[in-house]
Amino acid sequence: DIHTAPSGGALLATLPAPGAAGQIGRYIYATRLRAGLGSNPVGLDRGAGLEGDEDVTIGRYDIVVVIEGPREPSVVRKKARTAGIWINRDTVEFDSVPASYLMMTTKPVDDPQFQQALSSLGIGLSEITFNTNSANADAATDGDFRDAVVRLKMTKELYWEGEGIRFLGDNLFRARFKIPALVPIGVHQVRSYLLLDNQLVSGATQAVNIKKTGFEQFLYRFAHDYGFLYGVVCVILAILTGWLSSVIFRRD
Questions:
Q1: Contact at 8 Å (CB) between 192 and 33?
Q2: Angle (CA) 115 182 145, round 5°
Q3: Distances in whole angstroms, Cα of residue 188 to Cα of each of 149, 205, 207
Q4: Which of 53, 71, 202, 209 allows an S-S link to 33, with CB 3.0 to 4.6 Å?
Q5: Which helix (H) or strand (E) holds 177?
Q6: How deeply is 42 buried, as exposed, middle or buried, from its count of CB atoms within 10 A (0-12, 13-18, 19+)?
Q7: What are the mean pLDDT values of the chain's consecutive 10-residue runs (252 residues total)?
Q8: Are 48 and 214 in contact (CB under 8 A)?
Q9: Torsion angle (degrees, nearest 10) of CA 53, 54, 57, 63
Q10: Which residues have a Cβ under 8 Å from the Cβ of 241 and sit 6 or more positions away?
């Protein structure tokens, strides 16, 4: 018989009397990860700072939250010096690369045991899969081209991993992500992982839609819904800009 305590909301269980062997019974406690998005969809206004919130309610364990953007093709070229001139020698075309990959954890990602646990689960920047059908597929497997993609994404803050999840109580924590300005619009996958002693206990996956807002959204819709009128306005603005420049910098 399981019931709720009048004060505090704790769950109480009335157990049967011990049997002949002196055992009351055998019980299994299963932990389940419950994840909830702080805001969905997320509005993207590149002219203003934006932070996305990810609130997850669970017990006190190690937590990993990953926000992975839509996949897109990517071309990587490797330059080499030939006869004193730097030219493109090798090219690899990746068919499927995450446009963004943000990962936040409750402990430092450079912890050896924690890093090994993440690697075994395929979590982290070093574990992102890049698919390719390029003729130079062998060159892609050596890691140079893959590392170049990760490095370029990191300079744009599209790829990031680090510690930052904070517990707000016994059963509540918050992972607050800073959404980069260049993050692509579209549906992003939010994956939450619950680990105990570096072993996966549970996980949850949700989708969050990132879209344009503000003046950027107005221009985007205007250009797509009224293409001809948008073109006319651009031509008029170009003529006015040229005329205004000639007036300002006129030499008498």
A1: yes
A2: 55
A3: 19, 10, 6
A4: 202
A5: strand 173-178
A6: buried
A7: 60 69 59 59 49 41 91 85 79 88 92 91 90 60 79 93 82 81 88 87 86 77 87 92 84 63
A8: yes
A9: -130
A10: none
DSSP 16: P
Main-chain dihedrals φ then ψ at residue 207, nearest 5 degrees:
-110, 140
Q: Measured between alpha carbons, how far is residue 85 from residues 50, 79, 92 in Å?
A: 43, 10, 21
Element (H, E) at 82: strand 71-82
Count of CA atoms in the C-beta half-sphere (13 A) of 14: 5
Residues 146, 171: contact at Cβ < 8 Å?
no
Owner of token pair 């996980």: 203
